[in-house]
Structures are given as structure tokens and as C-alpha cells.
Write a structure and sequence with these properties.
The chain is of the alpha/beta class. It has eleven helices and 14 strands.
Length: 330
């Protein structure tokens, strides 16, 4: 009997956040996600992606890009062919992760095993503190003082006070900071030395991606991580002298396939690896847990910022996030 044709379904869902979440570019109260589902008559594979306006994406544009792939999926498109059929970004991420999930179910193996990881382990994930006044960020740090890794959102002026308040409130926590392109060149010499003295372990994307050459001209007392400046392995040639680490996000790489390629290439260049996320549900985090097995820093706290996650979801236990169960993904 001939195998059933593949059919692609595209849907959207909005998750309310537990509280408003602010970064240097603005605040949000909801997370809007797009889900790709591939059915082949016997099995279903799912992938969740998060459109990001900073990269010219919207829910409508991502849905349209996925809807345009229905014919190719029906004609037998597979995960390898997908890499050339769509550009990197959220839409390809949703479809790529759906293929990984479907492939795992078809062969009766876990996706991590297909990726060469036989026994994925629980990982320490960062918990992100929204950008706010030093007093409120200190209070948020105190409420999460028992977490092993805190990520502190920054925005420029006042950042030393923000980090100092969190450090006083959570003296044992490891700290990383993320300016989301919110600094200007003067902030490098004004803020970076103070962050080193406060024990910050990583500074994420301090300058705008198109204006980060100034990073070559100043000492880096704390390693600097490229986020907006590095989407795929093709961007790595632009990083030497500016960054010591890369933040791998599946919505930037266009899926788990591209994320694994970027991780290999970054490690070969001696770069530290961080695995991050947009704010989405456990379905978006689950594939990232595979590439996160290779990371020095893990930031997969999206579901912790939601008022309610999807069920079933990932299991979070204090600072640990556990690999997904098969009912969720992979």
C-alpha cells in the first residue's frame, strides 16, 4: 500500500504572560505563536514558532509562508529539502521542528537520538528578569534568589544600578545580562567594567547589530554574546574580534536542523554557545533542549513567563528544565 500523503495544517495561539515583560525595545503582555502540524495518516508532527517583528516577521506573514508550503509538503517534501525551500526564520522553524517530531514518531525513536544524543539530561536554565527600575528589578531578584542562573534585561543608562540591585538581592546566583541592542558606544566603557566587578558571566548583544564594530575597540572584561548579530552559521565570519559567544535560537536559525549546524560551526571556532528562546510555550522549547545539551548557557524559560503553559509541557524543577516527554514533542 502506498504511504498516505503528508498534509500540513497551520494554526495560531495566544498565551497570556504572567506579568508584562519589558526589554529595551518595548513591553508585551501576550505571546503569539504559530504551530505547524504535519499529518501522514498514521503520525502527526508538531512545531511551534514565534514571529518576531525585529526581524520583519508577523503572525500573518509567518502563517502565509507556511500556507505556501502546503503543496510541497503534500508532494513529499522532507526535512533535508526544506532547508533550501525556505529561508531561515520563524516559519521554517515551525516546519522543521514538525518534521523532526514526525520523523521520530515514524521510526519509533526519540528526536534526540536521531540527533546523536542518546541520553539528554536536565539542564540549568536562566530565569529572565524584565527591564524595570533598579528597585523593582531588585525585588524580582529577591523573589528568585534561589535560582542558579538569572538573566537581567538592560537598556543603557541606569544599568549598573539595575545589576547591582539584583546582585544584592540574589548574591549566590550566576548572572548574565542582555541589552537587546539598547546600548550605545559610550556604554561599553561606562558599564562593562562595573558588570565584571559585579560578577556578570556574559553580556548579550549590547550594541545594535548594524553598529557593533565598536566592540573591536574596547576590552572585554566579560565575554560578549551575539544574538541579533548572529542568526545562522553564515554570520560567523563577521563575529571575530567582537564576540566570544553566540546565542542560538531556533526561530533565527530556521529550526533545529540549522541550530545544530550553527552549534557545530561555532564550537569549531572556539565560541561559547548559549541557547535561547523567544517567549513561547513548551512546544517551542522542546526542540531547543537538544542543541542545549552542548551549550555553556541555557535560557529556555519561556513557559515560566506564561500565565499558563500548554499541557503537557516541559517539567521545570527549580532551576532545572527536563527533556521533553514524547507526548509533547520528539
Amino acid at each position: 500500500m502506498a504511504p498516505s500523503p503528508q498534509r500540513l495544517s497551520v494554526s495560531t495561539r495566544t498565551f497570556s504572560l504572567a506579568r508584562p515583560f519589558a526589554i529595551s525595545r518595548g513591553a508585551k503582555a501576550t505571546a503569539e505563536v504559530v504551530v505547524a502540524e504535519i499529518f501522514d495518516g498514521d503520525f502527526r508532527g508538531r512545531g511551534e514558532c514565534v514571529p518576531y517583528s525585529r526581524y520583519g516577521e508577523s503572525v500573518a506573514s509567518v502563517v502565509a509562508a507556511l500556507e505556501a508550503m502546503k503543496g510541497a509538503v503534500f508532494a513529499g517534501l522532507d526535512r533535508n529539502e526544506l532547508q533550501a525551500a525556505m529561508p531561515p526564520g520563524a516559519a521554517r522553524n515551525g516546519l522543521d521542528c514538525a518534521f523532526w517530531d514526525l520523523d521520530a514518531k515514524r521510526c519509533g525513536r526519540r528526536a534526540a537520538d536521531l540527533a546523536g544524543i542518546a541520553h539528554p539530561r536536565p539542564l540549568v536554565t536562566a530565569y529572565t528578569l524584565s527591564l524595570d527600575t533598579p528597585e523593582r528589578m531588585g525585588a524580582a531578584g529577591a523573589a528568585n534568589r534561589d535560582r542558579k542562573l538569572l538573566k537581567v534585561k538592560l537598556g543603557g543608562d541606569g544599568d549598573i544600578e539595575r545589576v547591582a540591585a539584583v546582585r544584592r538581592a540574589a548574591p549566590a546566583a550566576r548572572l548574565i545580562v542582555d541589552a537587546n541592542e539598547g546600548w550605545r558606544e559610550r556604554h561599553l566603557s561606562e558599564i562593562m567594567p562595573a558588570l565584571a566587578a559585579l560578577g556578570v558571566a556574559l553580556i548579550e548583544q549590547p550594541l545594535p547589530a548594524g553598529a557593533d564594530e565598536a566592540l573591536r575597540d574596547v576590552p572585554h572584561p566579560v565575554p560578549v554574546c551575539a544574538d541579533e548579530s548572529c542568526h545562522t552559521a553564515a554570520d560567523l565570519d563577521r563575529l571575530p574580534g567582537k564576540y566570544e559567544a553566540v546565542n542560538i535560537k531556533l526561530d533565527k536559525t530556521g529550526g533545529l536542523t540549522g541550530a545544530l549546524t550553527l552549534a557545530d560551526a561555532a564550537a569549531a571556532r572556539g565560541l561559547q554557545i548559549m541557547v535561547g528562546c523567544m517567549i513561547g510555550s513548551s512546544l517551542a522549547m522542546a526542540p531547543a533542549m537538544i542543541v542545549a545539551q552542548r551549550a555553556q548557557f541555557v535560557d529556555l524559560d519561556g513557559p515560566l513567563l506564561l500565565a499558563a503553559d500548554r499541557v503537557p509541557g516541559l517539567r521545570y524543577e527549580g532551576s532545572l528544565v527536563h527533556p521533553p516527554e514524547a507526548q509533547l514533542w520528539g
